[in-house]
């Protein structure tokens, strides 16, 4: 049994500029050393995501989004409650991604009880580019918020 | 849809359910298809530049990063090319392991495409998850297949995404037999289910389109073996060359509408690589179970309808599970996990059958083992011309369809190729313009 597994997933492509936002958040969270929290880095392929969050109780996912906001702006969405807003669902460099994974999981009854998405506004997706400063800073903020959120999820058990 | 009756134009956002993004433009005047262009925006040979000056042993890991869907293909072609340059042979159980991890990738890639991306086209769903609500069992079967593929890659390759255990000459560590054995029940179950899937795809409704492609695929030097990890390059119009003959046989050229290179057979034109070509040129080499399933599915005597590629992929999933079980039966842990080598100045060529078709690598290395030059030709750039020609023919034959349906069918025509545009591009938008 999961015993209330708590999981953080960072999604991104390390070679596409700001698209690395979710990965940076995962690394920042790992550096915080939050006890009992599992941290994974994935590319965002739906089947991998559904497998990753199987039997988890609380799952937080960070991914880059391009919805027209300021780079580094962070959106927090309760994905267990309903579909991700269309503006945040794409396009990303992983064309079939998180939004599809959430809906596939929902259709199959395979969503964790708590699923929260942190969308980090990204601006540059050029191949080979490094992530921008605003996105790097946002990844740190997301990691800190996620650590707090996963800590309280653990305390609720 | 807009216009005054003479000029009509349809646009979609990026083309959903294709790995990565790109753009497609179709212009029709009256009953003539005037222009079909696949525009893909290639990061200008980023990886080839990135590889220069790196150690030869880094090529498999660096190129695996090109594609999250088919890292094993990139690793295998890179290894084959380096081994060709170094003059070493990877044989016996090491080669079997290379083939085994590749089976995992075929399953993973084909299952994702078949169940989640392509099947919805045939059943009239806009997405895999919309289909999952009504066809839960089928989609769950697909997820199980993909998971089994993942497991194989993890076990042999070290991890599922960007496997870390693959190296020039073989592997860093050869898996224990008992660890592979533990996978057997899952592989057997998935093989049974794959047979169900072949039957299921055979019952889909296929649009009419028969094309006279020049089919290009590998042919294994091992008698009776379906090509996966290496072989000679052969075609339905008489090509039969070693991987080193790739450049003399095919050429890539810039076209105005795309920053990606388009490949063609020198002196001829478009060619088709991928499952359909592999199947057509090697179907007598399938395992008895897969061959029988193909016959039962109505493609035993051949298949030139690109829409039926979904059946061929189902047959290849079945074959990959069957082959993985055969390799497992024969597995004995090798004494050494890799063939050792000494660097030398040379040029090497490697080709393997990525899920989407031929993946060619060529490296020039110096006597210290550093990469001087690298060239990579992915399957999608080889198939671009064929995709355009399919579209041209399909649109010409189906002009009577309403715009929206025509657009959907065009998308489906592109998805027949499972184009892995993420290897080479950003957005895929589809426009149909009627004048």
What does the model show?
The complex is a heterodimer of chains A (about 160) and B (about 425). Chain A has about 160 residues and is of the alpha/beta class. Chain A has one domain (about 10-155): HybD-like (Rossmann fold, 3-Layer(aba) Sandwich). Chain A is built from five helices and five strands, in the order E-H-E-H-E-E-H-H-E-H. In chain A, helix 1 links the parallel strand 1 (about 5-10) and strand 2 (about 35-40). The model of chain A is unreliable at about 90-95 (pLDDT under 50). Chain B is an alpha+beta fold. Chain B folds into two domains: about 10-45 and about 385-435, no CATH class; about 45-380, Cytochrome-c3 Hydrogenase, chain B. Chain B is about 45% helix and about 20% strand. In chain B, strand 11 (about 345-355) and strand 12 form a beta hairpin. In chain B, helix 4 runs antiparallel to helix 6 and helix 5 crosses helix 6. The longest helix of chain B is centred in the N-terminal third of the chain and has 32 residues, at about 90-125.
Helix content of chain B: 40-55%
Total number of domains of chain B: 2
* Main sheet overview of chain A: 5 strands, mixed
Low-pLDDT residue intervals, each spanning 5 or more residues of chain B: 1-20, 422-430
Overall strand count of chain B? 14
Radius of gyration of chain A: 14 Å
CATH-level-2 architecture of the largest domain in chain B: Orthogonal Bundle
What is the global morphology of chain B?
globular
- How does CATH name the architecture of chain A? 3-Layer(aba) Sandwich
Q: Low-confidence parts of chain A, pLDDT < 50 over ≥5 residues?
A: 91-95
The rounded distance between the terminal residues' Cα atoms of chain A is: 14 Å
**Overall pLDDT metric of chain A:** 87
In which order are the strands of the major sheet of chain B placed? 1-14-2-3
User: Biggest sheet of chain A, strands in spatial order?
Assistant: 2-1-3-5-4
Query: Can you identify the CATH class of the largest domain in chain B?
Result: Mainly Alpha
Question: How many individual domains of chain A?
Answer: 1
Alpha carbon gap, first and last residue of chain B: 12 Å
CATH topology label of chain A: Rossmann fold
CATH topology of the largest domain in chain B: Cytochrome-c3 Hydrogenase, chain B
Total number of helices of chain B: 14
